[in-house]
Recover the amino acids of this structure.
């Protein structure tokens, strides 16, 4: 009887270890998804705050490409800089693998739209130097800017 009990205890111990390991892997995956959701909520809140501060002229220029580009004002440069700081934050989180590719794809779709707008292209030339410490970010932005013709 004692000879049979030893292997049963060993198998039960091994089963417990395997179950514990699988549970740990599942927990880690769920935790990563939760953290990504929290990061997305925070970044989305930052985008919303930034967009709410945009002057009406920028919204019109963003929403209707037939609208003439408003004259340059310091306020527009400040808004472009604020927007870029949110984008660089998201970019660095993605670059350091804190964001999943799915979440990055959502953010990148928004970046493509705003970074391609004429008002941002104009202001980028003014604020670009403020991001010199992030050359890969500058490359990212410039890949999304529309190509200059001529």
């Amino acid at each position: 009887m004692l000879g049979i009990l030893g292997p049963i205890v060993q198998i039960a111990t091994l089963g417990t270890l395997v179950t514990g390991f699988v549970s740990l892997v599942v927990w880690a995956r769920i935790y990563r998804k939760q953290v990504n959701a929290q990061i997305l909520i925070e970044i989305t809140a930052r985008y919303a705050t930034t967009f709410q501060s945009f002057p009406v002229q920028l919204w019109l220029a963003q929403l209707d490409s037939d609208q003439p580009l408003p004259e340059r004002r310091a306020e527009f440069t400040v808004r472009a800089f604020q927007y870029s700081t949110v984008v660089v934050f998201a970019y660095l989180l993605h670059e350091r693998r804190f964001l999943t590719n799915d979440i990055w794809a959502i953010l990148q779709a928004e970046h493509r739209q705003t970074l391609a707008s004429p008002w941002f292209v104009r202001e980028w030339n003014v604020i670009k130097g403020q991001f010199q410490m992030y050359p890969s970010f500058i490359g990212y932005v410039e890949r999304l800017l529309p190509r200059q013709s001529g």
User: Anything to note?
Assistant: The chain has one domain: 36-144. The CA atoms of residues 29 and 35 lie 10 Å apart. The mean pLDDT is 87.
